[in-house]
Amino acid sequence: VAAVANGGYLLKPQIVKEIVSANGKVKHKFERQLVRQVISAKTATLMNQLLLQVVTNGSGIRAYLEGFRVAGKTATAQKVVAGERGYSNSKVISSFVGYAPVEHPQILALVILDEPGVPVRFGGVIAAPVIGNIFKDALRYLGVKPRYEAEVAEKLSSEEVIVPNVRNLPITEAEGILQKKQISYRLLGKGSYVFDQMPKAGARINRNSKVILYFDPKEQYQYKTRGSQLVLPNFQGLSIRKVNELLIDMGLKLEAKGTGIAAGQEPPPGTVLAHGASVKVFFTPKTDDLP
Length: 291
Fold this sequence. Notes:
The protein is α+β, with helices and mostly antiparallel strands.
């Protein structure tokens, strides 16, 4: 399906699209890598139109999104009966695969529901709506602008607002900007600076929607530097995994003693260390883990 969306070309799967600095600047972008052409461009165009019809007028209509051209395919498969011949009449796998927008695909997703416990189990009925809900938020987050007919666009423009950029701003300043535009927001995490936001700046959202502001989870444990040396932060209350992640970022080594959450450390917080030094952290079980 991805090959159809890509004009007939099979691409090498990639996990990372780009590396972005804290100020939003793209430091490195990973270009897509073509593997081979699996179908002709003409066939891909035809398949695009057929899959588009599945959503606009067919069994996948529950994945339809106003303003976006979504293409996809529904499926409902009976499961094989273990140890017997034939297929089950009661156990099925319901699924839907889709991508959008058709003219310039930005996202593709597959939803598989194994033995759904509902009376109506067709993929177009229970899996397609999941794709629709995912795409509704994801496309806005990606900054993909919806396309409407003139009358609809005029009506919606009065109900929508453009999301401002508040990344890397102090929380008080970010809140002020959003409040001035009468945009509701939700805070996730703890900190004094906005680390990221969803949807991204420039996206259009309904005035009743909320912008989510994220804080850097490492901010409260951020280390300071003195020249080429590091000032050790306080790890108390953190898990072994989190302490190890922070020390790796600092170029230090962890000597873990015990399990659970950090209760003490050597050297103590505030100690100046050189890169490559070891830090001994003592962990104790969480109180709810004790018998």
